[in-house]
Amino acid sequence: MSAAVEFQLPSTVLTVLQLLRERDANMSVVAAVAFAFICENEGLSQTELCQLLDEPSYVVSRVVDYLGQGTAQVGREARQRGLDLVERVPWDRDRRVRVLKLTPSGQRLRQALNAAVVRPQPL
Q1: What architecture (CATH level 2) is domain 12-116?
Q2: What's this model's pTM, rounded to 2 decimal places?
Q3: Average per-residue pLDDT in the chain?
Q4: Residue 98: phi, psi to the nearest 5?
């Protein structure tokens, strides 16, 4: 039996992670970091996200599916609909390239995270 851990003065990083996990308890640290990168760098490509996360393309593809509108795998067998926070859209310079943007739901979550993190807390 595991008890929920509460932090007295969580750092900014842990506050954001905790808030994201309130949205979906299954959110991995990689997915949370990916969402933060997309929030701060809207319009980056999935390849660029792979480089930022230092993860292979198949992992990032699954994470973007999970954050996006597709069907994502959670665990070994369970499947769930994506969180509808991120979408892949054609890049205006080259329609073959897809870039990552926040959906209206993702923009609202970013605003909520920014409001919750009023004053940064050091690690």
Answers
A1: Orthogonal Bundle (1.10)
A2: 0.81
A3: 84
A4: -105, 135
